[in-house]
Amino acid sequence: MTETNTPVPGPEGARVGVWFVGARGSVGATAIAGALAVRAGLAGETGMVSRLPEVAVAGLPELAGLQFGGHDVSDVSLPKRVEALVDAGVVPHGLPAALATELARVDARIRPGVTGSERPQREIAAALTADLRAFREDNGLDRVVVVDVSSTEPPVRVTPELLTLDGLEQALDAGESPLPASSLYAYAALRADCSVVAFTPSPGPRLPALAELAETVGLPWAGSDGKTGETLLKTVLAPMFAMRALKVRSWSSMNLLGGGDGRTLADPANAVSKTATKGQGLEAILGHRVDGPLHIDYVPDLGDWKTAWDMVSFEGFLGARMSLQFTWTGCDSALAAPLVLDLARLVARAHQAGRVGPQAALGFFFKDPAGSDVHALSEQWEALRTWCAELAEAEERR
């Protein structure tokens, strides 16, 4: 991986665009409404890692300078989506009315997303790229970060044309459509000189051909699959067992989800991507395979909320059998939204600093950290803190 490229200078208070793939979904709408609310002094920054001194030292773009747009396949307007989030208990009452003008302005920038189409992917990619370039030019932006918060896709088989950039370009030139939707968005973003955040477990920029493209065009990216709930707890608790030399015999996990995410994951093909990323951290941290089921079940009544129940069976001195149980109930969008805003600002800063390729230090935010095999949250935090300090020191030397 190329660590740095020639830095791209930006003025103080640079204007950064955040383009959400899935802008009218729960996470995208919550992030946009939340950012506008904080900017207007109607909400605080609770849940935003970027407000912590160890991260803020990196010199991130100001929240006030962010401009929003996006792609979505839904025709439900952003203001209506935020109103629905009020009914779901995610967004405070009164906020949609207070932000009506701003929400409508953002909604006007949301363009139709990728649907099942007979058009060749080369043509679709060109249209997506044109949307991103127009967003940058029309709003006078210094740089744009594309953040994928769309529905989870099934895993993809890496065919020969997805292994190299040349192979991918030849397939697209031949009128073929080899890319899953998430990777098509990532391809268009990179071609439009936009860095990428893959907040879902979908393939996105992680295909070898797209990772090569990011290196070729000199852009940073981060992913994959935001770590917001049960897996976050696992990456805190599992190191405790390892450091105390306690043998984890099994770790059983039951997840109940409502909302669009739960509906998507009710399809077993889509759920494979999520269960894979949720389970891989334990083995990496504990150093051995751990038995136990991991279930994700859709419960429409839960709406935007999720509940996880975990049962950990472990062995201590002289073979004494013990257990730990915990229950986590959280609002998926409220947990994820501040993180995607953090990531957009961190990746924009990486772009400004000339960083290229997967940003391993941003693995702190992900279940499946690109460019890193570290899963323990404390170690990931140290990597993030060090990364931010290095950016601050580099800026001081300029």
TrEMBL record:
<protein>
    <submittedName>
        <fullName>Myo-inositol-1-phosphate synthase</fullName>
    </submittedName>
</protein>
<comment type="similarity">
    <text>Belongs to the myo-inositol 1-phosphate synthase family.</text>
</comment>
<dbReference type="Pfam" id="PF01658">
    <property type="entry name" value="Inos-1-P_synth"/>
</dbReference>
<dbReference type="InterPro" id="IPR036291">
    <property type="entry name" value="NAD(P)-bd_dom_sf"/>
</dbReference>
<dbReference type="InterPro" id="IPR002587">
    <property type="entry name" value="Myo-inos-1-P_Synthase"/>
</dbReference>
<dbReference type="InterPro" id="IPR013021">
    <property type="entry name" value="Myo-inos-1-P_Synthase_GAPDH"/>
</dbReference>
<dbReference type="GO" id="GO:0004512">
    <property type="term" value="F:inositol-3-phosphate synthase activity"/>
</dbReference>
<dbReference type="GO" id="GO:0008654">
    <property type="term" value="P:phospholipid biosynthetic process"/>
</dbReference>
<dbReference type="Pfam" id="PF07994">
    <property type="entry name" value="NAD_binding_5"/>
</dbReference>
<dbReference type="GO" id="GO:0006021">
    <property type="term" value="P:inositol biosynthetic process"/>
</dbReference>
<feature type="domain" description="Myo-inositol-1-phosphate synthase GAPDH-like">
    <location>
        <begin position="229"/>
        <end position="333"/>
    </location>
</feature>
